[in-house]
Amino acid sequence: MKKQTSIPASPSAEDYRDSAEDETIDLFDRKDPFALFGDWLDMASKHEPNDPNAMTLASVDENKMPDARMVLLKGFDERGFVFYTNLNSAKARQLHANAKAALVFHWKSIRRQIRIRGTVEPVSAAEADEYFASRARDSKIGAHASKQSEPLESRFALEKRIAAKVAEFGVGKINRPEHWSGFRLKPVQMEFWRDRPFRLHDRLQFTRKSDKSKWNNMRLYP
To answer: SS3 for 49?
Structure first.
């Protein structure tokens, strides 16, 4: 069997050296997972080459088959983590059928990862309207034109739909389409992972029984 050459060798201690500033407060002294998340996101924003708010969203379909894709975080606070999508998309259909999901943030530039699990609920119409209004005009037109997750016969067919919507809206206001909105993941578990030499990583897990409960935390073996 031919030896594979594309898989990197195991890293050395120098390879593991952190490429970003460390926290002034020790990771395991942190008590508020949302504040810690905000600190890490700010750090990633200074070092990631693009999309520090990119996250993997995992859900399951009607056959309980796992599914995952990258989406963009568009807001967070103590209520949870918000993202937006076409409500006819595969992800939206899965979340409506089973309102539980998981998120993963991985910032290679700062060698950190956050895993989040919880329940999912739709954002309010007012929230969706406010965010949609902030989008670029071409993005708004795309939201109206795209039949997300449905079969597409050609690129030309998509461009034709976009051109039709451009003509329809002209220079007028573009309101949010009914088939486009957002979801909020309300976490019951958040795990913070920080790279350390020779796979002896730091792991801090926060858990609570519901999104109304108090957080508990504990260290985990790497």
So the answer is: coil
* 27-135+179-219 CATH pick, 3.40.50.150, 3.40.50.720, 3.20.20.80, 2.30.110.10: 2.30.110.10
pLDDT tens-digit series, residues 1-47: 566 667 877 777 676 665 555 665 678 888 999 999 999 999 999 99
For 98, the 3-state DSSP assignment is coil
Catalytic residue among 17, 69, 137, 199: 199
Please give the DSSP secondary-structure letter assigned to residue 213.
S
Q: Does 199 participate in catalysis according to the annotation?
A: yes
pTM of the model: 0.90
* Cβ atoms of 30 and 47 closer than 8 Å: no
Residues 6+ apart with CB under 8 A from 85: 71, 91, 92, 148, 180, 181, 182, 183
Quickly count: other Cβ atoms within 10 Å of residue 81's Cβ.
26
CB-based burial, 193-218: b 16+ in 10 Å, e otherwise? bbbeeeeebbbbbbbbeebeeeeebe
The bridge status of strand 202-207 relative to strand 112-122 is unpaired
